[in-house]
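From: lab user (bench 3)
To: helpdesk
Subject: output format question, protein + zinc ion

Hello, I'm new to running complex predictions and I'm not sure whether the block I got back is the full result or only part of it. Here's what I submitted:
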Amino acid sequence: MKFKTIFGEVIDTPCVGCVVNDNSKFNEGRIFQTKLWDISQDFEIPYPGMIVISPMRHVSNYIDLSEEELHELQQLIILCKKAIVNIFNCPKVAYMFYDKPNGHIHFVIIPLHGLVEINDKYAVLSELFAKAPDLLKDKQNMQRVVKAIDDLKTYFQNITL
Ligand SMILES: [Zn+2]
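Helpdesk reply: Thanks, we reran it on our side. This is the complete output you should expect:
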């Protein structure tokens, strides 16, 4: 299937999540990578600081993650949270875990007091999805997305797991 990222890159892939395995794609959105996990800006929603953590292999069910993957995921979630608090001065985030049917599991972290106003923290994802087309057209917002990626990259620069 073909999809267009928030940076206008058209990517043809059987699994959107598997894009993390190919570092020639979605370069602008990448933040940090280990052998097991990829941390990137969300591909579809241009909300500054919206982080997606995906396994570096195709896993479609949470229970198929290895002990090593689960252990590292826990460490990465804490690091992402610390980075968000640090960069956005945002103490609260939403954590979401997806294992969609036939999909690639991924963990999403959304700063709740970020640079875009969120009215309903219980419907944060649908609210951001609805706002995505406008956020994409908003040049200032897109600059904030890029700045957030740069700041997150800098935060993770000296991290070794
Ligand atoms: Zn996949």
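A quick orientation on your result: Residues 15, 17-18, 58, 104 surround zinc ion (CB under 6 Å). Let us know if anything else is unclear.
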